[in-house]
Specification:
Two copies of one chain form a homodimer. By secondary structure, chain A is α/β, with parallel strands linked by helices. The first copy, chain A, folds into three domains: 169 residues, 3-Layer(aba) Sandwich (Molybdenum Cofactor Biosythetic Enzyme, Chain A), CATH 3.40.980; 77 residues, Alpha-Beta Plaits; 152 residues, CinA-like (Maf protein). Helices cover 42% and strands 24% of the residues of chain A. In chain A, the strands form four sheets. Chain A has a six-stranded mixed beta sheet with strand order 2-1-3-8-7-6, sandwiched between helices. In chain A, strands 14-13-15-16-17 form a five-stranded mixed beta sheet, sandwiched between helices. In chain A, strands 10-11-9-12 form a four-stranded antiparallel beta sheet. In chain A, helix 2 packs parallel to helix 7 and helix 3 packs across helix 4. The longest helix of chain A is centred in the C-terminal third of the chain and has 20 residues. The two termini of chain A are 47 Å apart. The model of chain A has no long low-confidence stretch (mean pLDDT 93). Chains A and B meet through helix 2, strand 2, helix 8, strand 10 and helix 12 of A and helix 1, helix 2, strand 2, helix 3 and helix 6 of B. Strand 14 of chain A pairs antiparallel with strand 14 of chain B, so a sheet runs across the interface.
């Protein structure tokens, strides 16, 4: 297995102006060809630090991928520092000059003088053409090790990686195959999943298992490595079977997809419709469902009934019920779901009522208490959840729980 | 100036599963207290590499900020590796145990056994409470140097940085003063702002100006550096005055705040209320407004009227008007806003109708066309926007434009 690392260069990455999405993209592409990225080092446009980063990377990696700092302005020093590190000198390259000149001519723009500097390239480097910009890529060799240098502009870097760097790395990285499978779970804590996978070491003989939690649930990533594609497939299949046996009831998708995308697919496939009545989530569930292209096929309408009056007027929740049980109660959640379904004439009515916080909680009904309910032609079910103390987190957790209740209702999974 | 660097720990960061947005956020916050971040090192959940990263960082930094790998599962090894590096041993901490236990009890969930491990903390570390999760933060000292260790979950890390780490670093970061002022603008392109600030070099003599664009608008960051607070304040005041003179009409806030927070403050202060009728944004505007704590004081209700039928039934939009002008039209937007206001008996009615895409566009009404309208006791106004071709971007741009129209209506800023 060849050891690969990334050096991302640019002041903008260190002051929060730009998020280093290049490194994430490169890591994912490397994984797909069986290379596990070891390190990403982010450093500013600073000679001494770039030199130090190169020395450290060279001491432990076979291949270094450098991005950024190849632009034409004064703060772009990457090319000069690499020449210093590799003992190269800059020479004029007529071909690059012509290419850059032609780019500007085509766009009807006079070429600024600084752009001519792009044609000055290190004498000992292999030059990689840049189809989409003016800064050429470079590849330096030092013994068995090599260093690819690419622009930081994402689409220029990506094209160079896909066309030139990845094919070379793939052929150099040997024969082993890595395969990945994702399980998406929700409504279960990371620690509970961990305990349910009680014989993890046995599972790990087939696949590496990673737990990736967020407010929306825990994503499980299974990775199988083997010398041949067939062996990797066999290992992955073993791991997938074992994990599914243990935690299958919490899995809502067999690939890296959102719960709203799964619910949308189910409804669209069955030609069924839903309407959503939200109190504490304030429109978040409707917003999530309508993020899916084509949602007008299954999403009929939503009501954000923040005031009690709106629950009474729009959903026919009896005022006496709100007075007796409170707006945050199972009775009101059920009445909202039924009222929503009836009013909108949809297959499903989904409803949420709760206390998002930070204020509005009582000893009996604390912040984070949420009732969700789902109605269909057979009746309605509800769940009671006690979430945490942060408003936005509570909204997201409640929205996700509601979508999961809808999913279970659609699939007629037994209500627990 | 103290030298600070970040070590981001997590396999998910190296395989493209998670983009390292934590480091960008931290870099920006550090800059605001006058600290220029030097390095970010990203490394997997791997003992040897984490140890190496710590040794390298320690050789060049005064302060190391570590995030990630503090979860309760087997792949979270950060705490153990730090103990090894600093020669600490784990001891049971009753207070942390009680806090974690209470978190689970409050939510009515049985605490899994692995969570008890969160109460095992390094004996020599200063423990930083985690308000929003189970993994406590830690601070190790070694001579004059120190290392803060925080969870990788963004909102947990951010709370810990704001409450505990940044105040300590600020007081340690020495004598030169950096002052920052943010202007929030919306409804104007970055390049237009740049041209309006026609004499930027003159302004830059007082302050550095950065343009930070997003789908919600362009944030302008003004930074003044000086040896004394008084001199920095003078410079900042000069820069603020000059920038405001040039682009004041696009500024909705004088600090880094969201437009919904500004609108919420205006409505709350004036004891006025709003109701929102959304078609293309599908609940996003309601969701944004109800993200603000206390929104029940000014947000009465929202309607997500995705189907034509729901526009007719819930907002009294005449069917003939939809047939004549189409659902995406200024007439329907105005009728929705008026209908919403009348139905909810609020001070303002806000409405949006448009084509979010990717499908549903025509030559006459292309994807990205959005009409927004706002009604008050005097009548209603509308705006026509032509956004781009991506669904989620269009929803966000439209929601932001609607909130800005509401802001202008509240402040009686002339409608353009």
């Amino acid at each position: 297995m060849i050891a690969v690392e990334i050096i991302s260069i640019g002041d903008e990455l260190l002051i929060g102006q730009t998020i280093n999405s290049n490194a994430a993209w490169m890591g994912e592409r490397l994984l797909e060809i069986g290379i596990h990225l070891n390190w990403v080092t982010t450093v500013g446009d600073d000679r001494d630090r770039i030199l130090q980063a190169l020395r450290i990377a060279e001491s432990r990696a076979d291949v270094i991928l450098v991005t950024g700092g190849l632009g034409p302005t004064h703060d772009d020093i990457t090319k000069h520092v690499l020449c210093e590190h590799y003992g190269a000198k800059l020479v004029f390259n007529q071909q690059i000059y012509d290419q850059v000149f032609e780019r500007f001519q085509k766009r009807g723009i006079t070429m600024a003088k600084v752009n001519a500097d792009q044609a000055m390239v290190p004498d000992i480097a292999h030059i990689m053409p840049n189809k989409l910009g003016t800064a050429p890529g470079m590849m330096f060799r030092k013994g068995p090790k090599c260093c690819y240098v690419m622009p930081g502009v994402p689409f220029e870097m990506k094209a160079m990686m896909i066309d030139q760097v990845l094919p070379e790395l793939k052929s150099a990285s040997g024969s082993s195959t890595i395969l990945v499978h994702h399980f998406m779970t929700t409504g279960v804590a990371e620690s509970t999943l961990f305990e349910m996978l009680d014989n993890l070491p046995a599972i790990q003989q087939s696949v590496d298992v990673a737990f990736l939690p967020s407010l929306f649930g825990v994503k499980l990533r299974l990775m199988a490595k083997a010398e041949s594609p067939a062996a990797a497939e066999k290992r992955l299949a073993e791991g997938v079977t074992r994990v599914r046996e243990k935690v299958g009831k919490f899995i809502y998708a067999d690939e890296d997809r959102s719960l709203e995308a799964i619910v949308a697919e189910l409804l669209t496939h069955r030609q069924e419709t839903v309407a959503v009545a939200e109190s504490c989530t304030g429109g978040m569930v409707a917003n999530m469902l309508t993020n899916i292209p084509g949602s007008s096929h299954f999403f009929n309408r939503g009501i954000v009934c923040y005031s009690n009056q709106s629950k009474i007027e729009l959903l026919n929740v009896p005022e006496s019920m709100i007075l007796q049980h409170g707006a945050v109660s199972s009775a009101v959640a059920l009445a909202m779901a039924k009222g929503m379904r009836q009013m909108a004439q949809t297959d499903y009515g989904l409803a949420l009522t709760g206390i998002a916080g930070p204020d509005g909680g009582t000893a009996e009904k604390p912040v984070g208490l949420v009732f969700i309910a789902c109605a269909d032609h057979q009746g309605a079910v509800y769940e009671r959840h006690q979430f945490a103390n942060d408003r936005l987190g509570n909204k997201q957790r409640a929205a996700q729980a509601a979508l999961n209740l809808l999913r279970k209702k659609i699939l007629e999974i037994d209500h627990e």
